[in-house]
Amino acid sequence: MKLYELSLVELMDGIKNNNITVEDVVICHIWRCESVDGTLKAFESYDFEFILNEAKKIDDGFYSHDMSFRGIPIGVKDCYNTERLCTKRGSKLYENYTAGNDARIIRKIRDEGALILGKTKTSEFSVHSPSDTTNPHNIKYTPGTSSGGSAVAVASGIVPLSFGTQTAASTSKPASYCGIYGFKPTFGLFPRTGVLKTSDTLDTLSVFTRNIEDLEYTFDNLRLKGEDYPYIYNNIDITEGKKCCETFKVALILSDTFKYKPEYAKNAFKSLENELKTKDGIEVEVIGLPDFLVDSRIVHSKIYNKSISYYFKEEYKKTPEQLSVLLKEMIEAGNNISLKEYLVLLDEQKLLTKMFDKWMNNNYDVVLTLASAGEAPEGLNYSDKPDSTLIWTLLGLPTLIVPKYKGPNNMPFGFQIIGAKYKDYLVIEFAKKIKQLGVISDSSVVNVSI
Questions:
Q1: Quick check: helix, strand or coil at residue 346?
Q2: What is the pLDDT of residues 312-337, one digit of tens each?
Q3: Gap between the Cα atoms of 190 and 106, Å rounded
Q4: Does 240 score more than 90 pLDDT?
Q5: pLDDT in tens, 388-402
Q6: Per DSSP, what are the bridge partners of residue 203?
Q7: Mean pLDDT of 40-46
Q8: Per the omega criterion (within 30 degrees of 0), is the bond before 172 cis?
Q9: Which of 221, 253, 290, 376 is most buried per CB count within 10 Å?
Q10: Predicted local distance difference test score (pLDDT) of residue 264
Q11: How far apart are the C-alpha atoms of 122 and 126, rounded to whole Å?
Q12: Angle (nearest 5°) at CA 45 between 122 and 161
């Protein structure tokens, strides 16, 4: 097996046990990038020479302290500040912008030995207008936006771990379309300092991997923890956040948009009920979207549009010709929402989150929905069918996307596991359980045709 096919945890074990060197790891992943990225266009920029030098330093013992991510090459979505590379944010307006500092979470993982192979492409300002990144399963298809570059980098084996974001469905769809794992933790568990802001109450950082163990390892080592974060401490740390269920109570939600999905996707998801029913330790029920969430998509849309109109008002005012039609439409829609209405919407967001948590705690451990309407649409400019992901983003819930299915064009798609706020470890434990039971499996590196 080639080094770029190994998981993060496998690479860490190999380095720790002196079976492989960090330089070997870096050289192999750079080779993989140079071999396939000309076709996939997952990266905006690279930092090969720097990380090769850093790899040699690590191997030579220059950094003597323990490192949780020693020598692991990573991809970073180009809306995260990085000390060395430009942060272009998917816009020509910031083509030469250099922050001169790392986003907080990137600084942490670099201090723990990770090496930034490069910045992955994002859509314009991490909103909707896509980049030119292609899907590694078939380059005629979209990888999804806006974290598509990060998803492609992992699916194709260029890196074992990459960082994305989600404000709407920017992690769920790319993970689903690329056939890998994506995880959006509870809102606020990953620090957002130094990451492009598009919405104060929706922006959430995320990670992509090819298996659950890498995802859990990354989350556990990078999330905020300790008494300096009292709400997190009280809801996760003092209970260890890892209490597992002897029997998981699971709901498959056929949301209000389920009727719009293609038949193959609906049939695939419905079949999950029968599959789970045969497994020990799982009680499953199929339900519709709870009534109190029916208007939540509208709440999300209005909060998002108003936030976009605020954070990009200067770009809209000074250089509107440099903005996409879609972004300008969102800004204009947001300009028509008053501050008073926006504050009411924020209160409604809080109320819906509390209602969902209460509903979950009274009924289920996790709920499952499709992670996208189905397989990736053909072409890079697409109008996808609606799905329920915006709801879970609005509520700030932990959401884990897992690969599972293939569509009629042999393209992957998956489902997502959702928990109540701060039930991140429970969501991960359920994913580990159904992997053990054979319901899902690790993703393999895609054999890219070049």
A1: helix
A2: 999 999 999 999 999 999 999 999 99
A3: 11
A4: no
A5: 999 999 999 999 999
A6: none
A7: 98
A8: no
A9: 376
A10: 98
A11: 6
A12: 65
In the chain, the amino acid numbered 327 is L
For residue 438, count other CB atoms closer than 10 A to its CB: 9
Give the chain's domains with CATH numbers: 3-240 (3.90.1300.10)
- Cα–Cα distance, 429 to 23 (Å, whole number): 34
Region for residue 396 given its phi and psi (left: phi exceeds 0; alpha: psi -120 to 50; beta: otherwise): left
443 is catalytic: no
The one-letter code for the residue type at 142 is: T
Q: How far is CA 405 from CA 118, 178, 269, 289, 347, in A?
A: 30, 11, 9, 23, 38
What is the model's pLDDT at position 176? 98
Q: What is the pTM of this model?
A: 0.97
Does residue 289 contact residue 255 with C-beta atoms inside 8 Å?
A: yes
Tokens encoding 364: 């289920």
Q: Annotated catalytic residue: which of 91, 123, 150, 170?
A: 170
pLDDT of residue 64: 81
**Neighbour count for residue 325 (Cβ, 10 Å):** 8
What is the pLDDT at residue 129? 87
According to DSSP, the β-strands at 399-406 and 412-418 are antiparallel
Question: Alpha-carbon distance 196 to 51, whole Å?
Answer: 24
Closest CA to 3 of 28, 31, 21, 22: 28
**Mean pLDDT estimate for the chain:** 96
Do residues 122 and 131 make contact, with C-beta atoms less than 8 angstroms apart? yes
Comparing C-alpha atoms, which of 251, 78, 49 is closest to residue 150?
Answer: 78
Told to judge if 77 belongs to the known catalytic residues of this protein, a careful annotator would answer: yes
Tally: H helices and E strands in the chain: 15, 11
Beta strands in 233-312 (DSSP E): 248-254, 282-288
The pLDDT confidence band at residue 298, using thresholds 50, 70 and 90, is very high
Tokens of 322: 């440099």
Give 262-293 pLDDT, tens digit per residue. 999 999 999 999 999 999 999 999 999 999 99
Distance, in Å, from the CA atom of 324 to the CA atom of 129, rounded to the nearest integer, reads: 7
Q: How far apart are the first and last CA of the chain?
A: 20
For 210-234, the DSSP string reads: SSHHHHHHHHHHHS--STTSHHHHH
Catalytic one among 77, 121, 302, 404? 77
Give the active site residue among 131, 146, 309, 372: 146
